[in-house]
Amino acid sequence: MALVVSSRKDSFVCCLLFIIVSEASAQYNTVFCDNNKGNHTVNSTYNNNLNTLLSTLSSHTEINYGFYNLSYGENEDKVNAIGLCRGDLKPDECRSCLNDARGNLTQRCPNQKEAIIYYDECLLRYSDRSIFGVMETSPDYVLFNIQNATNVGQFNQVLRNLMRMLTGIAASGDSRRKYAAASATATNIQAIYGLVQCTPDLSQPECKHCLIGAISEIPRCCNGKIGGRVLRPSCNIRYENYPFYDEPTAYAPAPSPSLSL
């Protein structure tokens, strides 16, 4: 499957790396190293706190709903991190994706205090500022399949209705998961599979606002294309003409605490 990746934040002074990936690839989609938010050095307190924090991700086995919000350190050396897995991932698959993200993110962004990496199945970000409960829509990235739909008008209408329905479902989720996925038929032979997700630390209005903004990018980036994605720190959307998700995993009823080590 041919994909095109683009960033809508080219004016940022940043380090942007991306890989065009196939459906079966385990590689990340894009990574953003923010040079505007400060740097750290090897063996600095911030660097040590960051490594300590990220190394504990997989140890929090009590988290079975795919959302991690962790912090470690104090004052200017405090590190805040968010990990979000796609809502259909099993806990062990989630932790595996975040472990891969941890290694690639610190390798690609070895000195930046703020960075984010996107995979098909998870995202990981960290910063020295507070990022919990803060809706952020940039940096954002779009990916799309270069193949066009057979009946663009009908395809776009069905896609709009599907994404609107999914937005309402996801935004009404709880503090552990704001996720929805479903399919719709655009023509007799063409189906659309859609997925939307917010970080569940957002309120319902914030999640809805983030998703509506991401969906509004579709006409500009992906009009008539059979597949597309918009990736944002606080939410993401995706649609394809093939199934790319499973049924969401169940999770035990428990609160979603902000964990400090």
TrEMBL record:
Residues 1-26 form the signal peptide. Keywords: Kinase, Receptor, Repeat, Signal, Transferase. The keyword Lipid biosynthesis does not apply. InterPro entries: GNK2, GNK2_sf. Residues 28-131, 137-244 form the Gnk2-homologous domain. It holds the Pfam family Stress-antifung. One of its GO terms (molecular function) is kinase activity. This is Cysteine-rich receptor-like protein kinase 29.
